[in-house]
Every structure is written in structure tokens, then in C-alpha cells.
């Protein structure tokens, strides 16, 4: 997948999270998460610019997703003001890092080249071979789908139309948690 396709897939994956944050009045977190997810979605292709790295090598693995998630989690913890806020910021940072890199991996696993998620421990390649990464129409379609989903989720959240989701009330609650106590499910 090329950059526009990865941006679209990242926005598509992050849209439900952004909608919940918007719905709950957590606009700063939504903006920071959006930037973080987009940055993390681009990170695996840093191997295109570092000649010592093989493309779709170590930067396209679950290890990279974990490493980036840990860095973002630690950054979230460090920027959290104090106490439970630091823990919440750490969890959010970890999720943003994992979602960003994970969305990139999802975009590459659907191409014939696929990826080796456990490299260097395993050379097993996984591919769904659904689309070619170099096809402009595919990249534009994913970009449009991601931007459209992100815009729609934002509009629906601002209009209070997320009440079909478990744990979401019919009116925004300012800085209240996304889920109330006991709403975590089974």
C-alpha cells in the first residue's frame, strides 16, 4: 500500500475511537490521537529511506507495533498530569501506537507481497492478496473511505447519534469516561 492508502486505512480504524472521544467532549485527546495514529501508520515505511533496512522487514512486524505502542504509552504516561490521569494517558498512548502501526500492517497484508509479522523469529509470509499496493485506484479508494468514515463519525458524534453503541449515553458528558463503571462487558 502507498501513503494515501495507509492514511485512509488508519483513519478508518481510528474513526470509532475518534467518535467516542468527540461524543464525550474529549476533543484534545481526539486531535492528539488522530495525529498519533497517522504518524504511527507512516512509521513502518521508514525502511524505504534507511538503506540498512530491508523493506517489509523488521519495521513491518508485530515487534515494531509493540515497540511503537510502548514508546507512545510511556510518552502518554510522562505527559499525564498525575495519578490516574497518567495511567489513562499511558493506555491511550499505547492504543494509539498499536492502532497506527497495526493499521499499516493491515494495509500491507492485503497485498500479494504480504508481510512477515514475526520476522526475524519466523520467515513465514502472510498475504491475503486482495489488491496490488501500486494500484492508484485502490489507494485513492482507501483514502476516500477513511476520510469519509472519519468525517461521518465526527459528525454523528457531534450530533449525539452514537446511542446504539454499548456504554454510550444519548448526550455528550464533557470529560466523563467513555464507559461508565460496570459497562466493560462480560
What does this entry show, briefly?
It contains 5 helices and no strands. The chain is mainly α.
Secondary structure elements and their pairing?
Layout: H1 3-23, H2 27-42, H3 62-79, H4 83-109, H5 136-158
Task: State the domain count.
Answer: 1
Mean pLDDT: 88
The major β-sheet equals: none
Total number of beta strands: 0
The assigned structural class equals mainly alpha
Query: Helix and strand string, N-terminal first?
Result: HHHHH
The CA-CA distance between the termini, in Å, is 37 Å
Shape: flat
In terms of DSSP E residues, the strand content is: under 5%
Oligomer: single chain
As residue ranges, the low-confidence spans are 176-186
Total of helices = 5
Descriptive overview:
The chain is mainly α and 186 residues long. It has one domain (3-158). 56% of the residues lie in helices and 0% in strands. It is built from five helices and no strands. The radius of gyration is 18 Å and the shape is flat. Mean pLDDT is 88; it is low at 176-186.
Amino acid at each position: 500500500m502507498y501513503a494515501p492508502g495507509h492514511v485512509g486505512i488508519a483513519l478508518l480504524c481510528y474513526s470509532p475511537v475518534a467518535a467516542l472521544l468527540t461524543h464525550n467532549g474529549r476533543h484534545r485527546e481526539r486531535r492528539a490521537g488522530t495525529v498519533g495514529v497517522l504518524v504511527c501508520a507512516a512509521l513502518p515505511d521508514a525502511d524505504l529511506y534507511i538503506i540498512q533496512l530491508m523493506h517489509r522487514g523488521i519495521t513491518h512486524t508485530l515487534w515494531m507495533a509493540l515497540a511503537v505502542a510502548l514508546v507512545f504509552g510511556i510518552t502518554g504516561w510522562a505527559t499525564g498530569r498525575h495519578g490516574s490521569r497518567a495511567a489513562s494517558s499511558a493506555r491511550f498512548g499505547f492504543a494509539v501506537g498499536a492502532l497506527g502501526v497495526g493499521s499499516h500492517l493491515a494495509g500491507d497484508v492485503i497485498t500479494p507481497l504480504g508481510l512477515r509479522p514475526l520476522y526475524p523469529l519466523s520467515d513465514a509470509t502472510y498475504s491475503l492478496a486482495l489488491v496490488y499496493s501500486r494500484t492508484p485506484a485502490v489507494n485513492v479508494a482507501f483514502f476516500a473511505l477513511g476520510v469519509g468514515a472519519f468525517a461521518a463519525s465526527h459528525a454523528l458524534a457531534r450530533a449525539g447519534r452514537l446511542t446504539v453503541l454499548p456504554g454510550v449515553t444519548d448526550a455528550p458528558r464533557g470529560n466523563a469516561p467513555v464507559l461508565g463503571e460496570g459497562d466493560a462487558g462480560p
